[in-house]
Fold this sequence. Notes:
By secondary structure, the chain is α/β, with parallel strands linked by helices.
Amino acid sequence: MTAKIISVINQKGGCGKTTIAMNLAATMAMRHKKKVLVIDGDAQASATKWASCAPEDNQFPCSVISLAHAGNKAHRTIATLINDYDLIIVDCPPSTEAGFNASALLVSDLAIVPIKPSSTDLWAIDGIINLINAATNTNEKLITKIIPNMCEPNKRLSGSIIDFCKNEESIELLTSRINNRSIYGEVALSGSTAYVSSNQKAKNELSIFADEIVELVY
Length: 218
Ligand SMILES: Nc1ncnc2c1ncn2[C@@H]1O[C@H](COP(=O)(O)OP(=O)(O)OP(=O)(O)O)[C@@H](O)[C@H]1O
Ligand SMILES: [Mg+2]
């Protein structure tokens, strides 16, 4: 067993990094039977708190550890864990300054960048592109994909995000979309995920997302 490593990353705060990381982790564990570790890279400890909200008799289906204080040495610790899991998902903190993000990218197979398509978030993407381009110089296997998050259901994706990806060599859009659904916020508070909720639409989009990621990294 050698873990694939996925960093969920964007310096923009609130774009859905933790939501995507936790829902993808649980979907990979339950749907694809992967042994998954979530690494919480954020000093706000959102992923750690999320998992700790789960009841004793219905625990979060993945291990969660914090490396928020490992800074630019995070990759060393991550490298020591790859033989114990099938998949390691890193929930990155919202900044480019912290050495953590660059460190996580050094050992990642895939960087997933959540973006709210209908907002000014696209203007803030330069920082993450620079970080990814720098990481690719030393980590040639790194691939980078955008996941449009908080999309309006039944609406086509705005042209601006599609045009943007056409102009960027290093970054492509996933086919999957995650829509804006209140279930994503609700389940977090009980340490759960939309994959095991009664919201079939959310469960379906998470399944399609996880299946696309499996195709990419395994
Ligand atoms: N697809 C979605 N539908 C509805 N709400 C969402 C969705 N994705 C995220 N949210 C909500 O948006 C808020 C921010 O999400 P989240 O904490 O995952 O972002 P983040 O990028 O990890 O933030 P930070 O930069 O602070 O770490 C949360 O309240 C979350 O519940
Ligand atoms: Mg977060």
